Amino acid sequence: MTVLRIVANIEATDPQAALVFYGELLGLDIVMDHGWILTFASGEQQMAQVSIASQGGSGTEVPQLSIEVDNVDAVYSKAKQLGLEIVYDITDEPWGVRRFYVRDPFGTIVNILAHRDR
C-alpha cells in the first residue's frame, strides 16, 4: 500500500471566502470547485507528510497547517497589506526556518515558512 496524497480539509460555511487567502495570498490555483468544496493546489510536487506535535516550537501553539513558500517575506508583506491577523510574527527559528503564523478566514492557524538553506 502506498499513500499517494494527503489533503487537508478545513470546515467552512462559505468556501468562497477562501479565495483571497489561499488564492491571492498564497497563489494557489483552484483545481476542483463543486460549490460546497473548493480545492486549491500548487503545481509543485513534494512528499506526503503528516506532522504530530505537542507544541509549535518556540513556545507557540501547534498550527493546523504548515505551508512552505519560496519567499516568506513577500507572503508576510502581502498578509499585512491584506489586513490578515498575524498570530506569530515573522521569526528566524533556531532549527533553520523563517516563518510566521497567520489566521485564515475560518480561524485556522497557518504556519507560513521558508527553509533558510534553500
Sketch the topology as an H/E string, one letter per element: HEEEHEEE
Helix content: 10-25%
Beta-strand percentage range = 25-35%
Number of strands: 6
What are the key terms here?
118 residues, 2,3-Dihydroxybiphenyl 1,2-Dioxygenase, domain 1, 4-stranded mixed β-sheet, two-stranded antiparallel ribbon, 2 helices
What does this protein look like?
The structure is a single chain. By secondary structure, this protein is an alpha+beta fold. The strands form two sheets. Strands 3-6-5-4 form a four-stranded mixed sheet, covered by helices on one side. A two-stranded antiparallel sheet has the order 1-2. The longest helix has 10 residues.
